[in-house]
Write a structure and sequence with these properties.
The chain is mainly alpha-helical. The protein is built from six helices and two strands, in the order H-E-E-H-H-H-H-H.
Length: 193
C-alpha cells in the first residue's frame, strides 16, 4: 500500500477519507457504504472497492509520465490544453464504463445470472472509485493547473499534500463530488428491477 503517490496525489489516507466522506454524504440512499444491499442476493463494501481502486490508481504501473492525466497532472511534453483534454477524456471514459457495466449488472441480475451481476457491479464500482480518485487529485495544491511532477520538486509537492492541507479542502471535495458525480453514483447503485 502506498503512502504517497510520487506522480502527485493526496496521501493514501486522504483518498480513503475522501471515499468515506463522499459515500457518507449520500446516506439518504446508501444505508451502509460497507455493506450496501443490492438486489436480494448481493451486498457490496463500496468503501473497500473505492479504496482498492484508489490504491490501484496510485500503484507503480500508473506512476509514469504518460499516465499523469490519471492524477490531474501533465506529462513533461504536454501543454495545459493537452493535459486537460487527457484528464477529462479519462473521467468521461470512467463515467461511461461505470454506467455501462452497472447496466450490465442489472441486466444479468434480472436474467438470474447473479454471479455475472456481482462481477459487473464490482467493475462498475471500481470504475467509479478510479474516477473519484482522479477527480479528487485535481483539488491538491500540488496539481493545480495540471502541474508537472519531477523528483526535484518532490519535497515541496509532499509538503503541499500534508493532512492539514487536505483537511482545508475536504468539504469542497465532497460537495464538488456530489455536484459533479452524485447522479452517477445514484445511477450505478440503482437497484435491479
Amino acid at each position: 500500500s502506498n503512502c504517497f503517490d510520487f506522480a502527485g496525489a493526496w496521501l493514501e489516507p486522504a483518498h480513503h477519507s475522501i471515499n468515506a466522506r463522499w459515500l457518507e454524504s449520500n446516506s439518504s440512499f446508501i444505508s451502509s457504504a460497507t455493506s450496501f444491499k443490492w438486489g436480494e442476493y448481493n451486498s457490496f463494501n463500496i468503501v473497500a472497492i473505492f479504496n482498492a481502486a484508489s490504491d490501484w490508481s496510485d500503484s507503480s504501473p500508473n506512476q509514469s509520465d504518460d499516465k499523469a492525466y490519471m492524477h490531474a497532472m501533465r506529462s513533461e511534453n504536454d501543454s495545459y490544453q493537452d493535459a486537460s483534454s487527457r484528464y477529462y477524456n479519462y473521467l468521461n471514459q470512467l463515467e461511461n464504463l461505470a454506467r455501462y457495466t452497472s447496466d450490465l449488472a442489472r441486466k444479468a441480475y434480472m436474467e438470474g445470472n447473479y454471479s455475472a451481476a456481482t462481477s459487473w457491479m464490482n467493475s462498475a464500482l471500481n470504475y467509479l472509485g478510479c474516477l473519484v480518485h482522479t477527480y479528487s487529485d485535481s483539488f491538491s495544491p500540488s496539481h493545480a493547473g495540471f502541474q508537472h511532477f519531477t523528483y526535484w520538486n518532490a519535497p515541496e509537492h509532499l509538503y503541499n499534500e500534508r493532512d492539514s492541507v487536505y483537511q482545508t479542502w475536504s468539504s469542497n471535495i465532497t460537495s464538488d463530488l456530489n455536484r459533479s458525480y452524485g447522479s452517477l453514483l445514484k445511477f450505478v447503485l440503482k437497484q435491479p428491477e
